[in-house]
Amino acid sequence: MADEELEALRRQRLAELQAKHGDSSADPLQQEAKQREAEIRNTILAQVLDQAARARLSNLALVKPDKAKAVENYLIQMARYGQLPGKITEQVLIEILEKASQQTEKTTTVKFNRRKVLDSDEEDDY
After folding, report:
1. Which tens digits make up the pLDDT trace of 58-81?
2. Pick from 100, 20, 16: nearest CA to 64
3. In this predicted structure, what is the pLDDT of residue 59?
4. Angle between helices 90-103 and 65-80 (to 10 degrees)
5. DSSP 14-77
6. Is the whole-model pTM more than 0.85?
7. Do residues 40 and 78 lie in contact, with contact meaning Cβ atoms separated by under 8 Å?
8. DSSP 3-state assignment of 88?
């Protein structure tokens, strides 16, 4: 009886650790759902974007994955609500990317904190 309880505790602890660290390899259903979602996203983007725009978006995803994901979500949302007249060309995608950049633009400020050091020339005479 103690062995069964110990084994149950081990399984419970293993499940907690996997959930905490996001180990999706233990749950094939969750992994399959993520794969289906990715396929749906790719299908929608293939219908909405022309070849050059898809290439530009995939290049952006290599450099800035969070920005590419945000633009993909925006395009998918527009497609679902029927706000896209046709396929998006590369030039239109560039305009969308510029708008997204302006909205998320960060201002960089540099502040110098200079330390006042008491420098005495008397110590250098030795």
Report:
1. 999 899 888 899 999 999 898 888
2. 100
3. 92
4. 110
5. HHHHHHHHT-GGG-HHHHHHHHHHHHHHHHHHHHHB-HHHHHHHHHHHHH-HHHHHHHHHHHHH
6. no
7. no
8. strand
